[in-house]
Amino acid sequence: MAFTLEYTSTARNITYTLTVNADTEGALAIDLTGEDESGTRVAEGTLTLPPGGATESARLLHQSLTAIAGFETRRPRRSTVGNANQRWTPDEDTALREAWLSHPPTDSATEVIRSLATTHQRSPAAIRARLPRLTCDPDVSGRLLTETTATLVGRDAIPAVDDT
């Protein structure tokens, strides 16, 4: 039995048309086209299947296209800030420590960290992680770590800082 089916769908300003033609023997010719708003063809392809080949081919196409679609729907990578993944220099460490200690404990640690992240072109997570290494308490702005809190964050990870 011969027949023709046509399906149309529009996504992201491209109209896709899928046309399926079956001949009297059961062989299928599948044509896919895609046109943008100006009528320019941006996608096209033809698939010819023997009689009885539609089921397995449909399964394979479905699996393949589902996997490919997963790449399209992933969130784009976040843009990195200027100094991301760069080593901290001694001067940057000194500037960060001094800036942290210049804030009173009444300032929101989260807001101070965000501000320092912008100033130092680092992420807030990078600033928060660096503060204990500079003997600064990341939970209270303007405060140094006490012996107790230094033990909790790992005293061995904290280099001695000269306060003179």
Automatic annotation (TrEMBL):
It comes from Actinokineospora spheciospongiae. It comes from the Bacteria. This is Uncharacterized protein.
